[in-house]
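hey so i finally got around to running the thing on that chain from the lab meeting. sorry it took forever, my laptop kept dying and i had to restart like 3 times. anyway pasting the input first so we r on the same page abt which one it is
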Amino acid sequence: MMNTTHTPMTHPRYMDDHLEPLQNAQLPVGITENSLTNGVLIGTPPITFDGDRSKTDRFITQFGLFRIINDRNTVITNPKRRVALALTYIRGPKVDDWVSQQFNALSTKVFGDADHAPTHTDTDEALWGDFMTEFKRAYNEMREELFARLKALQMTGDDVEMYIATFENLIRQARLERDSDRLLVDSFRDGLPIDIEVSIMERDTIPDTIDEWQLAARKEAKIQAILKTCHPEGEDTDAVQTGVTRRTRMSEEERARRMAAGRCFECNEKGHLARDCLDKLEGENVRN
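ok and heres what got predicted. didnt touch it at all, straight out
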């Protein structure tokens, strides 16, 4: 009797499995009454991942939410199909070779090939675990890249909550020691608008930890928002609040030097803080 070998693509089990159309799984669809009974995936699928490593975490989160929403659909509950579905959302010149490699690996594990017997059943959750491990290994940002993004992060407009959320997410991805790394405090301060940072530094008690800086930033952002509503458009709210024109950001070295020497951030003289600076008070008197 002739022994017929099959490649992953021509194996009968593979062919049978792929007779079912999965087109609905690749399209954003709305929630309907029959969604869970007719096999249609519901909700919004994840973004297409094109190899941009800054979007890796976003893709994982979005696919995870999509999986939870469809947690009774066999395309999601079956690990083999779940991996195949995830691969359909990974497309582009930077990732096509990797997708092909993962497809071949999945097929060999489940169906075997001319040289190897199958090593996994299609219900083996190790299929998904292996896929996620390989995906993160290939496309997670390097620690150095994440820290560079953290250093470059800037608060946009008045959106302090978005700034804090993005900052915290980068810390988590980079696996940085949040409560013990002084560089993180400096990075957070550098990303704040100068008027907010200076206002915080002029307080009686200067924040020390990340939590204290975030709390102070939220309070100052709220104050800034109130000031903007209290003064006509175009009026210099920085001048209204501080009595002086908007100041340029001091370098880290200069800030550290003044703090160590007990010098005022306003006039660079010793013996008082910026909030008690005569130059600043004179400016306020002139304005009044």
